[in-house]
Design a protein that fits this description.
By secondary structure, the chain is mainly beta. It has no helices and eleven strands.
Length: 130
C-alpha cells in the first residue's frame, strides 16, 4: 500500500501562486506515476497534471498548461504542483494520486483517467478569490 498526504492549499488572490505538496509513504517503490486532480463543488474530479516517476515525463490538462508545473523528488518521495497565475476557476479540492507499477501503459495521456490510479490522498482545498 501507498499512503499519500497533500498539503499547501489555502486562499490566494487571482494572479497569485501556491505550491501544493504530496508526501508518499509505504511501498513507494511500487509507484510508477503520480498525478494531481481537482474537484470543484458540484463537478466531477478532473485531471490537472501527471508525471512518470522514473523519468520525470510530464503531462498537463490544457486548462493549466503554462501556469502549473508538476515535479517530483525521489529522495524525499514527494511530488509538487507549482501553481502560478491562479484564476477563480482554479478553486477546487486538489487530490494527489499514484499509479501502481503493476499496470502496463505507454501513453502519458492515460494519466488523465481516474481509473488509472490506485492510491489517493484526502485532498487539500485551494480557493482563488477574484
Amino acid at each position: 500500500q501507498v499512503q499519500l498526504v497533500e498539503s499547501g492549499g489555502g486562499l490566494v488572490q487571482a494572479g497569485g501562486s501556491l505550491r501544493l505538496s504530496c508526501a508518499a509513504s509505504g511501498r513507494t517503490f511500487n509507484i510508477d506515476a503520480m498525478g494531481w486532480f481537482r474537484q470543484a463543488p458540484g463537478k466531477e474530479r478532473v485531471f490537472v497534471a501527471g508525471i512518470r516517476w522514473s523519468v520525470g515525463t510530464t503531462y498537463y490538462a490544457d486548462s493549466v498548461k503554462g501556469r502549473f508545473t508538476i515535479s517530483r523528488d525521489h529522495a524525499k518521495n514527494m511530488v509538487y504542483l507549482q501553481m502560478n497565475s491562479l484564476k477563480p476557476e482554479d478553486t477546487a479540492v486538489y487530490y494527489c494520486a499514484a499509479v501502481d507499477r503493476g499496470r502496463t501503459w505507454y501513453l502519458m495521456s492515460r494519466l488523465t483517467a481516474l481509473s488509472m490510479y490506485d492510491y489517493w490522498g484526502q485532498g487539500t482545498q485551494v480557493t482563488v478569490s477574484s
